[in-house]
Structure to design on (540 residues):
């Protein structure tokens, strides 16, 4: 399957991490595509939650925003936003929070707030939205983003949501009881944290990806597992499902 | 009697320059028509609060009407950044903008606290988050029973909240369906509330007993504005105009284009223009 794009590989690799037992709080963009591919392939019973209050949603097309009508129409139920954050997220019902990032560091800390100084920013980004509490209250966090030197940096400009902080037991020291980032899926590789330091380590490279490609698109010195394997290429079902979903979405947005 | 004849009247009687106002809506049911009427009537020096300030707050800020914005996500949902807000924060154009930034959980809790008549909201939040360092209104509080350190933010208490809803009864009771967001809390937290609706019906006798209904005595003014949420949507009436959200990214990128667009589509327009804007977004009859 040599015609698979890096973006398709990323979405499919991310989808594989989800199971039918998961209750997943879905970020918009790449996470949303991965979560719905999982639902349409190997995890039909997964519960997808979007922060607009839609619980158990099963959209036929990918939403442009977290509050598209499609999410409500296909949801098991739709609750108010205060209830969403209090009972369902803070109450500990979410097993996986799936986030994207503008800036990410090696410990899974995310910045979507500002580039530059907070009080005199070079670029003012949208901010955290639900992410600060998703990052702390979900059972664990998966992150997906395309690699770039601008995105994957040695030091993020602002801690919008806390990953493993400075690494090690930093979460526990702050009284956070959840696991934090346990998985990073980029367009080039699958990463999981080192058990002790919590620094992301590459466990598998997507087909055709070299170590050099990963390092030249990542702002910190990349660590590789002793036994880096190749990410299994997309199956026919995975690829067809993703492409059909994208085609339906493009058609709906053009209408 | 809360039912009034015109949006012009509802706006002029319920908001003045210097007020703290919330125009709430979570992607769905955003009160665009009401916000545009406020822009036309010239109120300024406003403190605007909202979880997801999108196009309407970008417009208020670009017109120079906002002194301070309290928010938790300042983006164009699914599209990108708010370019007028960026210009104000980064370049102070057309005037400096003071910001008070929170997370969604904090804002939702703060509205709920306002509705509940409490001075503050307490929740498990901001753990390790940078906003704790830069937002003076993010504090900590110790649980007197368990000793756990929790986040505290002041209650949101707007002078006036504007929302858009599907239906009002002739008495002025209001029904909200679908993605209900934080509108009920934002109305009950405010001193005054103005609601625009798609339709006025005789009564709500056939409505589900657990529906989200705001009794007429919680609302200062209700008026019908068909299409009043456009380019947001009203479930059961018309779809979200995603193309307009995408187009806004270009309109708002340039100060002059923005200014001209605002003149043509807001300052020299009227509430009656909204109905035609959603004509192609309504479901086939």
């Amino acid at each position: 399957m040599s015609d698979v794009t890096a973006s398709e590989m990323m979405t499919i690799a991310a989808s594989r991490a989800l199971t039918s037992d998961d209750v997943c709080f879905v970020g918009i963009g790449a996470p949303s595509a991965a979560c719905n591919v999982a639902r349409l392939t190997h995890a039909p019973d997964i519960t997808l939650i979007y922060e607009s209050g839609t619980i158990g949603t099963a959209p036929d097309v990918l939403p442009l925003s977290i509050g598209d009508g499609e999410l409500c129409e296909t949801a098991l139920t739709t609750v108010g936003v205060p209830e969403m954050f209090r009972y369902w997220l803070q109450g500990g019902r979410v097993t996986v929070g799936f986030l994207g990032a503008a800036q990410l560091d090696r410990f899974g800390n995310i910045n979507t707030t500002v580039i530059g100084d907070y009080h005199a920013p070079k670029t003012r980004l949208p901010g955290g939205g639900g992410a600060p509490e998703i990052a702390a209250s979900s059972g664990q966090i998966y992150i997906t983003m395309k690699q770039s030197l601008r995105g994957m940096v040695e030091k993020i400009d602002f801690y919008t949501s806390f990953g493993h902080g400075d690494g090690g037991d930093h979460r526990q020291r702050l009284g956070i009881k959840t696991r934090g980032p346990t998985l990073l899926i980029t367009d080039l590789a699958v990463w999981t944290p080192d058990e002790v330091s919590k620094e992301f380590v590459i466990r598998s490279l997507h087909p055709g990806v070299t170590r050099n490609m990963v390092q030249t698109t990542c702002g910190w010195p990349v660590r590789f597992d002793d036994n880096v394997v190749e990410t299994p290429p997309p199956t026919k079902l995975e690829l067809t499902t993703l492409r059909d979903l994208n085609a339906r979405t493009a058609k709906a947005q053009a209408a | 009697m809360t039912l009034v004849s015109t949006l012009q009247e509802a706006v002029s009687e319920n908001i003045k320059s210097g007020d703290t106002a919330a125009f709430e809506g979570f992607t769905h049911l955003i009160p665009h028509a009401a916000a545009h009427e406020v822009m036309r009537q010239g109120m300024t020096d406003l403190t605007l609060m909202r979880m997801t300030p999108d196009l309407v707050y970008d417009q208020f800020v670009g017109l120079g009407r906002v002194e301070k914005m309290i928010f938790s996500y300042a983006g164009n949902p699914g599209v990108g950044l708010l370019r007028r807000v960026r210009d104000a924060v980064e370049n102070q154009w057309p005037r400096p903008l003071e910001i008070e930034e929170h997370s969604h959980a904090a804002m939702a809790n703060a509205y709920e606290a306002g509705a509940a008549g409490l001075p503050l909201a307490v929740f498990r939040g901001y753990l390790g988050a940078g906003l704790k360092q830069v937002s003076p209104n993010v504090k900590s509080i110790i649980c007197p029973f368990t000793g756990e350190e929790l986040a505290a933010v002041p209650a949101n208490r707007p002078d006036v909240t504007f929302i858009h809803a599907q239906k009002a009864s002739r008495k002025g009771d209001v029904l909200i369906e679908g993605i209900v967001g934080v509108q009920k809390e934002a109305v009950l937290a405010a001193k005054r509330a103005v609601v625009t609706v798609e339709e006025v019906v005789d009564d709500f006798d056939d409505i589900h007993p657990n529906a989200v209904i705001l009794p007429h005595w919680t609302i200062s003014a209700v008026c019908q504005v068909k299409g009043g949420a456009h380019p947001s949507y009203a479930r059961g009436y018309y779809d979200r105009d995603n193309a307009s959200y995408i187009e806004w990214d270009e309109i708002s990128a340039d100060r002059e284009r923005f200014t001209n667009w605002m003149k043509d589509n807001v300052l020299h327009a009227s509430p009656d223009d909204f109905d035609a804007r959603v004509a192609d977004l309504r479901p086939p009859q």
